Amino acid sequence: MSLTTDSPLLVAQLASLAARILATLPAAARNDALSAIYLALSAAKDKILAANARDMEAAARSVENGELSLSVLKRLDLGRKGKWEDMLKGILDVQELEDPVGKVSLRTRLDTGLDLERVTCPIGTLLIIFEARPEVIANIASLAIKSGNAAILKGGKESTESFVAISTVISEALAGTQVPNASIQLLTSRSSIPELLSLEKLIDLVIPRGSNELVRYIKHNTRIPVLGHADGLCSIYIHETADAEVAKRILQDAKTGYPAACNAVETLLVDEAAVETVLPVVAESLMSSGVSLRCDARSKSGLTTKLPKNLSVLLQDATEKDYETEFLDLILAVKTIPTVPGEPGVEAAIEHINAHSSHHTDAILARDRDIAERFMKAVDSAGVFWNTSTRMSDGMRFGFGTEVGISTNKIHARGPVGLEGLTTYKYLLRGEGQIAGEYGAGGREWKHERLPL
Amino acid sequence: MSLTTDSPLLVAQLASLAARILATLPAAARNDALSAIYLALSAAKDKILAANARDMEAAARSVENGELSLSVLKRLDLGRKGKWEDMLKGILDVQELEDPVGKVSLRTRLDTGLDLERVTCPIGTLLIIFEARPEVIANIASLAIKSGNAAILKGGKESTESFVAISTVISEALAGTQVPNASIQLLTSRSSIPELLSLEKLIDLVIPRGSNELVRYIKHNTRIPVLGHADGLCSIYIHETADAEVAKRILQDAKTGYPAACNAVETLLVDEAAVETVLPVVAESLMSSGVSLRCDARSKSGLTTKLPKNLSVLLQDATEKDYETEFLDLILAVKTIPTVPGEPGVEAAIEHINAHSSHHTDAILARDRDIAERFMKAVDSAGVFWNTSTRMSDGMRFGFGTEVGISTNKIHARGPVGLEGLTTYKYLLRGEGQIAGEYGAGGREWKHERLPL
């Protein structure tokens, strides 16, 4: 890892060269590098925590001055119970994952002695831009090395001391392995971002990990593909056949489990037939947990008569804007799907979601299987769920072992992205001197025989 | 198909709505629409050829005035032997391909009664911008409908009459099917392009089919993902173990088979040890076909003594720029890989290619398998071939049935792109009321059991 230069161009050139070498290393060499990083970080615990303490001190002063929020300060703390151990365990978890490189996904015999193979390979050079959490550097370095990609890391300024300490240790550890040092490089200066984002010939993919504002800024300021999502406007639709207790339980989880998460629910759609049956059960439970409901007229009137008086302060009027807002807070927009003879409510719900959601994760609660399948087919989002919480949208929960991020792109990886999302593929064609011109009209015929993988 | 509006925004909005419907139609409904288009075009042959004749007349005048090249005029001609029949047959070929939608690529039991499925689905709305060839409209319409995507088509102005005639027929044909009319829309005005390229919320993917300039313009003027390639700078490396006759045959095919193709070879790298053995055989054959060789000093001196005098006019000096030029013509840049003890030539060849090629297709000619495998592992291109021609890089030759284009992107589809490249996927999760909060520390454990596909 190079800390000797702050020139983004030079860093990217070195990364690009390192990526070429990394791409040809066998899995064992990449895994050995992860072991080396694990051991080196374990040995350097005191030094790193001391650096982290300096970051914390500076950040505490900024909190006092009102320049920094308490939540950022909390995220900075590597000394918090279990955090250091989790960071180290994460490296070994990544090491144990299946090698994503060299997987054959297609094998075709074009002709005798002319075999085509499609095989996964690393993307090349990743640029990861993240905010305060210092443990991310170990996580990202592991993912990048495991998948054979070089990574340029730009961390938040609040955790600079921690980053430099961790990256110095990683650098020293890599020096004793086959993985080139420049595979993982750290840039600390915020002013390097615009130049990095312009290096489309050297950097293949940008992965922002942080606030919506950060992601949106990056998406609007680069031609390099960006993996991630700016918004997580998730909806849940309560169909008239939904079970009230199931709905209550799922909405509690989806709204109050972790309101600031991108997979938390922000809009609740309710069939008119359920407004006075299912909705009051859901609403009372949510409001008891402090959730404000921003309701349209029909759902509000349905709730007013059914709810205890003391909760009425949390019953508010919705504006159109509320149905396009990612609150990331204990607020939920509620909209009634009116009963119209001959027009199933599910169609109106689908239409609302396709027009308003951020295509992240949307769910239907219903007993009716056909209705649920229709919803899952027609909603155009990365995750479409039936009778479960939007919070399930997560790489760890999906069994991917780890998560690079959740993508709302429709191109390349979509939804929770594991190691697979850090690979591309290439076509290898092994021949015996065949040429294109000898096939076709009057010539040889293609065999195009699928071979086993 | 709507021809009543020329507002790009309205066209894109209609396409986006049509895409939602199209995405939920079963394969049979999409295939029926292709039958209807096939029959309608067959019946309207005379009308369409008459429109095409009007385009040809106008174009012939432009050729006379020197405003248009003869090659564009040729590409315009739908009446040319076999072209009409090929266009119609193409529709049925696409219809017969396997349905790319609804394929399950991952199935995991997260827990009892909580099954995750990853299933392919259409991308949404495609914008296809192409130049003169009028038959492309039928091809693209078929591919879009087959894959469940809506398409906005912007054709070249030289073939406007043909496009309007074909698209009117397609429109009338779709009216009698379940596929919405607005699934395929035509825009004829060139001034609509900048606005279309700005509609990133409505258009999901841009596919340019035409000159390098067109592709480069589009890549630099939109934030919508672009599928395709601007450059096709392909290389062939002759290793010292290459067979001279095989090399001669492959270079003939790769350089002279279709010099204007993106998969034609532009740079030839030759091991110094082969400069006076293999290279003269290759060079004489190429030069006899009229190919100029732009050589570095070592390869030129190696050839000078070996070649017949009458060919010497085709033996030229290379400049550095020649190794970065896509000639698309009967010109080949030749570079010697010097013999350096302890440094295998293949490494220098890999380095040259990774630094200079456009990551489209590169090949090695060698008898040595280990050397070839090393080359295929380390060269970072969409296609890396051994003992066969770069011209093999083609969706039809690869057995994909048809080809949307060849992509040099490393994100999403890479190499020749078939129908698969017009799909994305979504995660469906079917539960029985499970919530995220009940799993993890002290709670339920994930099963993460892989289910058969």
UniProtKB/TrEMBL annotation, chains A, B:
Start and end residues of each Aldehyde dehydrogenase domain: 112-286
Gene Ontology terms: biological process: amino acid biosynthetic process
Enzyme class label: oxidoreductase
UniProt entry keywords in alphabetical sequence: Amino-acid biosynthesis, NADP, Oxidoreductase, Proline biosynthesis
Signal peptide, first to last residue: none
Annotated InterPro entries: Ald_DH/histidinol_DH (IPR016161), Ald_DH_C (IPR016163), Ald_DH_N (IPR016162), Aldehyde_DH_dom (IPR015590), Glu-5-SA_DH (IPR012134), GPR_dom (IPR000965)
Keyword Oxidoreductase: yes
Catalytic activity line of the entry: L-glutamate 5-semialdehyde + phosphate + NADP(+) = L-glutamyl 5-phosphate + NADPH + H(+)
Keyword Nucleotide-binding found: no
Name of this chain's protein: glutamate-5-semialdehyde dehydrogenase
